[in-house]
Amino acid sequence: MESSKKRNIMPFVFLAPFLIIFVVFMAYPTIYSIAISFMKFKAGHFTFNGIKNFSFLFTDPLFYKSIKNTIIILIIQVPLQTIFVLIVASFLNIQNIKFKGLFRMFTFMPVLIDTVSYSIVFGLFFNAENGLVNKIIELAGGQGANWLNVGVLAKAVIIIALTWRWTGYNTVIILGGLQNISSELYEAASIDGASKIKQFFYITIPGVKQVLMFSVILSVNGTLQLFTEPYLLTAGGPVNETLTVVQYLYNTGFRSFNFGVASAGSYVLAIMIGIVTLIQMKVTKED
Amino acid sequence: MDKEKNLVIPYIILCIIAIISVFPFIWTFFAATHSNAQVFKLRDTFVLGKSFSDNLAALQGSYPIWRNMWNSIFISSVYTLGILIIDAMAGFAFAKYKFKGREILFFVCVASMFIPQQVTMVPLFIQLAKFNLINNSFAIILPGLANIFGVFLMRQHFASFPDELIEASRIDGAGDLRIFFTIVVPTMKPAFASLGILSFVNQWGNFMWPLIVLNSTEKFTMPLVLSLMVQPGMVVNYGAVVVGAVFALVPVLILFLIFQRSFISGMLSGAIKG
């Protein structure tokens, strides 16, 4: 009798440390954040503010601009990276390649460097006066560019940096999926005379669809929350051309201390991420 | 013969990819030995300079860099240890006990994985200010522990642990906590290694939240102090910055080289959300 009673509380003994932390630092703030979205913070106090925070957001051109910038970076960076990932993974999956482990290790390495360090290093590479990239361009007879001070180029640098960092990581994810495709499928296709390119589109891509979609969802969510790279490379400039949504939220919340608007904006971001994730999941499930 | 020939292009491409992936690392290590002017000299890219000690002296002179290094190590280690204990216990509860509300509780926790960190940013800041934890290492550690992912991962690993073994130990009179720590945990080393490495590396590179809750250089972690060095409008000592970047990189690189296998699977476990 006593032992069964004991058994009933045992799961909660195991759960207690996590649950306490989860309630205090996750569940409660998530709900509190909804409340703050409808309040104004002034002189250390919150007062009810109706939907003014949301109407402020949706009439603020800067908020729209941050969404636009984030989406532009997203719709170029994620497909570009995904193409690279598929190519590199296919090459790494060729049967007779030697030193596979070594190649895999090297391609994986970019994800080891912390976001701040690699942003600084890329900033030095693309430095307008002295950077390595401009020097190489000049050596080749071209003219160097003012990378971080032109909107389009600054976005390009962020895209290049992100792609450098995340291609290898996602390649290793996809490689796991590729290894599950039976080599007999390829052999049969070869016998039927299907070219390598055809095999890629009719065997490889459908074979890795699940993991591929998963890697895309991860990348999309990551890019929607882009912060560190533009913070360090461009500080959102030139003239807010690389200001991302999360940077906007950070500036609003912790530079202007406009807590209400920042919380409201974070929910807009959450909804954006939710919708995008749902769409992607639906696309994967459909066929 | 024909097959060998076909592999030339793949080898070339893989080599190019490997070089692109590794180049910034090598560049950084060489640049750490360069003077401020030499950092930008193209032909010196792979030449060891003589300025490492000068750069280090400049770095130590301007920033409490060893203190920052210690802060990073302390925060990442305590956080990782906390995650391993708390998440393993919770994962075990979800995997091995039937209790009222288990499904709904688990659903709520998993749903929280889809909420971006920015949602809790403002209320957490206010809360931590009330607890008097602003500018304290635990302002980073404690909220981080509410991450459900590790619970999820651990639950999956514990699910495959044989129930009979637990039952048998119970009959022998062992308490559940003792069974957990002395019988179950020791068999789960690979899972702990994966989750541990993932947690450590994520926390090591954590930037935005520390930027919000830490406000004195003494308390800064490595990424924060590095970001401070390249603030707009500052005269940047490039050599010193790069030495700092090397310091931030080396611990993770060492972990990687020692535990390569569990390192990669650990980093990827973050990708297998199920």
Protein model, in words:
The complex is a heterodimer of chains A (287) and B (274). Chain A has 287 residues and is mostly helical. Chain A has two domains: 2-37, no CATH class; 52-286, MetI-like (MetI-like fold, Orthogonal Bundle), CATH 1.10.3720.10. Chain A is 74% helix and 3% strand. Chain A contains 13 helices and two strands; from the N terminus they run αββαααααααααααα. A two-stranded antiparallel sheet of chain A has the order 1-2. In chain A, strand 1 (39-42) and strand 2 form a beta hairpin. Chain A is globular, with a radius of gyration of 24 Å. Chain A starts with a helix and ends with a helix. With 274 residues, chain B is mainly alpha-helical. Chain B has a single domain (64-269), classed as Orthogonal Bundle (MetI-like fold), CATH 1.10.3720.10. Helices cover 70% and strands 0% of the residues of chain B. Chain B has helices spanning 2-6, 8-31, 52-62, 65-96, 102-111, 118-130, 138-144, 149-159, 163-171, 176-184, 189-205, 208-213, 222-229, 238-258, 260-269. In chain B, helix 4 runs parallel beside helix 7, helix 13 (222-229) runs antiparallel to helix 14 (238-258) and helix 14 packs across helix 15. Chains A and B meet through helix 1, helix 3, helix 4, helix 5 and helix 6 of A and helix 2, helix 4, helix 5, helix 6 and helix 10 of B.
